[in-house]
Structure formats: structure tokens, C-alpha cells
Write a structure and sequence with these properties.
The structure is a single chain. It contains two helices and 20 strands. The protein folds into two domains: about 110 residues, no CATH class; about 130 residues, no CATH class. About 25% of the residues lie in helices and about 30% in strands. By secondary structure, it is of the alpha+beta class. The chain is elongated and about 95 Å long.
């Protein structure tokens, strides 16, 4: 039981470390870990017990199931003043065209590629409701006077609408998984996107990570102390076993 608990705390420490490493990553969503005590006598695997209510039950009859989930709460907004920086307020995601298909993100750190297409910092096109968003003007496709994005996601260049951002949402709790570079994809094909209707777009802002660095540092200290406690339990059991073996040896 102590070894299982120690492993769970080790995994939790890895999650906290990753959160802290991304405390300044635009659009990053932190992960949380938790574990429950499962009753193996239930073949369905659905029975979980509170470890503080186990009473005199043998500890070896139970094992800890460790799980993690992503916290999709909004991060704070940072003003940049760049026309290409967009932040979402509310529930939903930008839709990004990648070589592996459509992916979703809260990272609105966009730019313009050589073809005049709105893209991510990785060069993936940002999708609009009618496909890629191409920034053009009457004089030159790559020279324009003003780019404006309103709170509904409509993109206007020199006063003319050139597209509207495709903003997607999913039934909550979100069944999405991380695929790197602050991108997400559905856990399986049964999870379908819906239009985001409770969201606004803020131009000239970026949504920062939702990691609370101070809280994460506090949790890290708590986890380290918990891990040390499990180590002491394991060490005590080893010492008791060694003493018992030595005593039995002398008696024999």
C-alpha cells in the first residue's frame, strides 16, 4: 500500500513539474492528478473506497488507481497590441488545420505566412467557417492598412470582411487529450465539436497559462512531504522484516 501511494505521489510530482515548466506558455492548460483506492473484489472495477474508512481490512486487498485530468478554466489575458494576437474569453477553441487533421487550441499567438494566410507560430493555418483565412487588400495581398477582428470572430481587412473564425466547443466535461504545442484532439470519434456560442474574441491580447505558480509550489512541497512519509513507512516495514528474520534465525 505504501509503495502504491509512493508511486502515485511520484506521478503527481511529475504533473506539477510539467505545470510549473509551462507557467508562462500561452494557452497552456494545467493538469491535475488524483488517486482512489479500488476494491479488487469488484470485477467491474467500479467500486472505490475511501482509504480512511478501510478499518481493519487487509491493505494488500486494495490498490490505488491514479488518474489525471486537464483543467480547462480560462487563463489571464495579456495585452500585446499585436493585430494577430487573439484571445478567447469563455468556453471554446480555435480550430487549426494540421497534417494530422483538425486540432483545437486556446493559443491565439498567430501570424501571417508568405501566402497571406493566418497561421499559428508553427505555420498551421487557422481555420475560418469557410476554410483558411486569407488576409488580402485591394492593392497587394500582403500589404494592408488595417486588420480588425471583432468579438464574434469576424476578420476585416481595410473595412472588408475576409472571413470568420471557426470557433468550436465540446460537451463538458471536455473529453479532449493533449497532442503537443497546446493543441487538443477528441479522445475518440464519438466526441464531436459544436459551434461555440458562449465565447468572445479579444484582439491584441493573448490568453496566458492557467497555472497558478504559487499554488503549484505549495502542492509540490505537500507532495514531497507525502512521498517522504511513504518512504519512511516502507523503510520501517523493511527494518521490521529484517529484525524478524534475524530473531527467527537466532531462535532456530
Amino acid at each position: 500500500m505504501a509503495a502504491s501511494g509512493g508511486l502515485a505521489y511520484e506521478k503527481r510530482l511529475q504533473i506539477i513539474s510539467n505545470n510549473l515548466a509551462n507557467a508562462n506558455t500561452t494557452g497552456f492548460k494545467m493538469d491535475q492528478g488524483y488517486f482512489r483506492i479500488q476494491d479488487p473484489s469488484d470485477p467491474s472495477g467500479q467500486t472505490f473506497m475511501n482509504p480512511w474508512e478501510m478499518g481493519n481490512t487487509q491493505a494488500q486487498d486494495f490498490w490505488m488507481q491514479f488518474n489525471m485530468y486537464t483543467d480547462f478554466s480560462n487563463g489571464g489575458l495579456k495585452h500585446t497590441g499585436s493585430d494577430f494576437d487573439l484571445a478567447l474569453v469563455g468556453d471554446g477553441f480555435f480550430c487549426i488545420k494540421t497534417p494530422d487533421g483538425v486540432r483545437y487550441t486556446r493559443n491565439g499567438n498567430f501570424t501571417l505566412n508568405s501566402e497571406g494566410v493566418l497561421v499559428t507560430d508553427r505555420g498551421y493555418p487557422v481555420l475560418g467557417k469557410s476554410g483558411e483565412i486569407i488576409v488580402q487588400s485591394k492593392e497587394d495581398p500582403h500589404k494592408y492598412k488595417q486588420l480588425a477582428v471583432d468579438y464574434e470572430g469576424n476578420v476585416n481587412v481595410d473595412g472588408q470582411t475576409v472571413g470568420s473564425l471557426r470557433l468550436a466547443d465540446f460537451p463538458q466535461p471536455y473529453r479532449l487529450k493533449k497532442v503537443g504545442d497546446t493543441l487538443f484532439e477528441p479522445e475518440d470519434s464519438s466526441v464531436a465539436e459544436t459551434p461555440a456560442d458562449k465565447i468572445t474574441v479579444s484582439q491584441g491580447f493573448l490568453e496566458m497559462s492557467n497555472v497558478d505558480a504559487i499554488k503549484m509550489m505549495t502542492e509540490m512541497i505537500e507532495v514531497l512531504r507525502g512521498y517522504e512519509s511513504y518512504q519512511k513507512v516502507i523503510r520501517s516495514v523493511d527494518e521490521a522484516n529484517a529484525k524478524a528474520i534475524n530473531d527467527v534465525g537466532r531462535t532456530a
